Amino acid sequence: MEVFQVTESSPQARIATSKEKRAKRTSKAFKSAQDKSQTVKPFTSRFSDDINKAINANRECLVQAESEMLQLEDSFEDEQTFIEKFASGDAKDVVALNVTGTIMVTKRSTLCTAEDSALAQQFDDSKWTEQGCSAPRVMEWTPDEVSTWAKSIKGLNEDFSVMLYENDITGRELLALSFEALKVMGLKRVGTVALLLKEIEKLDKSSRDIVTLIEHSPYCFGKMLDYLRLKQLHSQGLLAKHPALPIVCDSQKKRFDKVVKYYFPGESAKFILG
């Protein structure tokens, strides 16, 4: 039996290794890799034409598949980086805005993109601590904090705070307590149950009402906010190109300019208006 060893005739025709490919993240690098895969030289001329064609066709398919796989790996790494950066940060940085009846949610860091703007000053560290972070975040409470809250309720026996602590009731579980659950825990007196459920309802409402009122057009403020979000992503390297200025319909242009100049007075308005 005759044994053949197939070897490459041109080292220059090799596709770059995975490590090298990951270092080349531009379209030019990918185009170069594709050009190489299209100019692969035959493995050998010792075989018949049919065998040479079959070998070369298979090799070209493998080279192309490798190139596509490396591009997918790079794309996956980019997406992973995007998700990690986009989802990172403290939950306390999340801001809920009531823009004339329309709820919008964003990050405080997005609102502070332009540090010298009136918008950034409204949500700077000191003012945001006063407006937002001081509100109770019940869902994050530990059993100790739940017990302390129960002790502060007028008319509620202190034994109940001990009962909550012994059952390891967290803030999330506290908000889920029902009449039946309280009875199972041993709370029998109807008046006490009613008092506690009312206090839990008030606590739940206060923990949800962490909303900053914005008395401007939702359309105009939303356009401005979307642009700030894109600017933030660009500053983090998650957008390759600088975002284009907001496109506003003709009927809203004057109002949009007014909203922008309210939050970005003077020359700073050019940050969004151009």
TrEMBL record:
PROSITE patterns attached to this UniProt entry: SAM_DOMAIN
Protein name in the entry: SAM domain-containing protein
Disordered, as annotated region: 1-35
Pfam families the UniProt entry points to: SAM_2
InterPro entries listed in its UniProt record: SAM, SAM/pointed_sf, SKP1/BTB/POZ_sf
Polar residues bias spans: 1-12
Chain ranges of the SAM domain: 141-206
Organism annotation: Stephanodiscus triporus
Gene3D superfamilies: Potassium Channel Kv1.1, Chain A (3.30.710.10), Transcription Factor, Ets-1 (1.10.150.50)
